[in-house]
Amino acid sequence: MSDANRLVALDILRGVAVLGITVANLPGFALPQAAYFSPLAAGGTGPADLTAWALTFVLVEGKMRGLFAALFGASLLLVVERADAAGQNGAAVHLRRMGVLYLIGAAHLYLLWYGDILHHYALVGVAALLFVHAPARVLLLAAMAALLVATIGGVGLVQAAALPASRAALEQSFGRPPAPLLASEIAALRGSLADGIAWRWRHDAGALGGLLANGPETLGYMLLGMTAYRSGFATGAWSRRRYVAVAALTLPLGLAAELALARHGIARGFTLEAVLTASFALGPLIHAPLVAGYAALLLCWLPGTRAGERLAALGRSALSNYLLSSLVLAAIFYGWGLGQFARWGRAESYALLPPLWALLLLGAPLWLARFRYGPAEWMWRSIARGQAQPMRRG
């Protein structure tokens, strides 16, 4: 779509989501996989490291992923509706886009990082297509139902932790993995590119496993994004007073709930049950108020500002910048680059955040001043449409 037809509000929110996801993903590159959920796995448990974990958990983890998924849902409606209005088959256009996105995500997963979300979004995006003609009220009810299913699944994980047969496997992914397993992961990711690919191939849960574990939550947030788009919330159509009212209601509620979850994990000594409760049983529903509050606060503050313009440029090239951040972090931490994997503490790793954000915020406007799309967006669009799209401006 042309720049004139883009919805700047969506671009701004997408840009913020990209920055937030880099915060959440950074320890996932720097530390072994289980440390993403539990500080006991790796990364240190001193005051600075626990503070870094708590701030990320309360303010970012799950919230930026939820915001990104919601924006994905809003964009899904936008693409389908505009394709239909242009006389195309909107559903077919969307399915081609999801097929290409799945391939991009699979390449990202195995070549760079186990935590890829693109292939997962592509699969859930196919299911979300079933709701494109639903009114906002039905979308909201379906979203709540999907998040409830995610919560029930999380409760099932907590109960499974009490069974010896499944506890060991859950500890490996979300708790305190055995020392030999940690050592083998560290050796593989400090090794060659081939070593890293082989590790991810052996230990990835697979598309179906990810769909069963996280699909209901992702679908719930996509449907919330579709609701926000259809109601005008996500497009900046509401009055400033309404956005302020939403932020004032949801931010205190969401922060209080997230703080309670963080305190519960710390007080319980990050037992497996506490980690699973926070991330899977209660997280899907508890994250929703902060996702809405963040969006409302940003939309009553950023549109029309210089900061908003930079974030909108970042949002217009969100796919490229998501992949670029992965490439930069992988080059720092993995063995084919600087080989710093599991050598830094959790708090230390966040020293990389300011230069990484600066790269994204400065680079996106400079690129889009000369080109119509980010490089990944151009590839996605060209393959999905079966012909190379015009890239340079003018």
Whole-number tally of structural domains = 1
Backbone shape = globular
What is the CA–CA distance across the termini?
16 Å
Largest sheet: none
> Taking Cα atoms only, what radius of gyration do you get, to the nearest Å?
20 Å
Which percent range describes the beta-strand content? under 5%
Structural class: mainly alpha
Mean pLDDT: 94
Protein name: DUF418 domain-containing protein
Organism: Sphingomonas citri
InterPro entries: Bact_Transport_Assoc (IPR052529), DUF418 (IPR007349)
Keywords: Membrane, Transmembrane, Transmembrane helix
Please provide a written account of the structure.
This protein has helices spanning 8-30, 47-59, 63-85, 90-111, 118-128, 136-160, 164-174, 179-189, 193-203, 206-231, 240-267, 272-281, 283-299, 306-316, 318-333, 346-349, 353-370, 375-385. It is mostly helical and 394 residues long. It has one domain. Helix 2 crosses helix 11. The chain is globular, with a radius of gyration of 20 Å.
Keywords, please?
single chain; 394 residues; mainly alpha; globular; disordered N terminus
Task: Record the SSE blueprint.
Elements: H1 8-30, H2 47-59, H3 63-85, H4 90-111, H5 118-128, H6 136-160, H7 164-174, H8 179-189, H9 193-203, H10 206-231, H11 240-267, H12 272-281, H13 283-299, H14 306-316, H15 318-333, H16 346-349, H17 353-370, H18 375-385
InterPro entries: Bact_Transport_Assoc, DUF418
Organism: Sphingomonas citri
Transmembrane segments: 12-30, 50-79, 100-132, 138-158, 243-262, 274-302, 322-339, 351-369
